[in-house]
Amino acid sequence: MGWRVADHITIYREEGWYGAHPNIIRTPGGDLVTLFHRSPATGFSHHSHPLFDVRACRSGDEGQSWGPTELVTAYPYGGVIDFGTHALANGEIFLHGSTVDLVLAQAPEVSKHTWVSRPGVGFHVRSRDNGRTWSHPEPFPPLPDAVNGYPASHTGVCRSGMLEMPDGRMLLPGKATDHPEGRPPFFGMMQSSADGGHSWTYVGRIAEDDVAHFSEPAIYLTPSGRILALFRCHPNQPPGQDVHLVEVHSDDGGRTWSPWRSTTMRGCPGHLLGLRDGRILATVGTRWEGQMGCMARVLDPEARDLDTAQDIVVRADSAESDCGYPWSVELADGRILVVYYHVYEDGTRGIEGTVLEER
Fold it and tell me: Into how many domains does the chain fold?
């Protein structure tokens, strides 16, 4: 048995617009919704674009066709950066993200009419009608031991990781730093909610190092009760090229965590999807020559073969390295749809999907 690419699908591509960093969920009503960042393709440094909002395309036929873009949420003081979206057990859809504020530049930065982007706050919104309408953004509380907690640039709150526990808690890993300038290294941390994500409590640090730094976590609960978290890791400062996923885990409900360890999954960030047969699909973005796109591994239910499972090339032909960020959903027929962003030959950034099937 093995896995193969069955099809590639274009979900969103529009000249003059930059689409990136998608999520995909199945709504309680059964539709597939792909959510992604969008901003004008102005040549600005896109990942801190103050005009980033979150858009969505919807499919009612298991991803065969996709509707037009719909506005999900925007931040009134700037742009939305990294975010994650989750269908909750109570029928709601929960989205958490970070922002980039548009602020006046300080002297000697050009003039009083110059505006610059700065890391902003963390926020969350929710939908109770299958993602048709969304609540007003609500901020996360400040972190007690981080001077630049959720405002830390590049995924302060988190990216793909959020976990509903059997006892009703919601666990949300992320990153922060205690350096006054907000610089790396960032440590991995955890927040928790006992009321469906309306209020959040800081739990503490779960991965830290004097040199390496951690960001963009994925999180998963195995059948044995182990909580597995995979962080994007930059092992050196300044960030080196050996970016990979590192693992920490908890066997006591998140009270204590193992030391972090490097895995063999090269690239970033990771995403973990539980399949109906109990296995886990782990995906990771890849950005090196000959492999600009994303890869996957299918793991046993406890992820014991995380380091040894066979690599599956999902996509490798992006025209530039500003690509990837995979997120997955299982289709009704057991195949898997992996979504990611992709650079076409004309330089447009859009949202693509790849269908994987087992043979």
Answer: 1
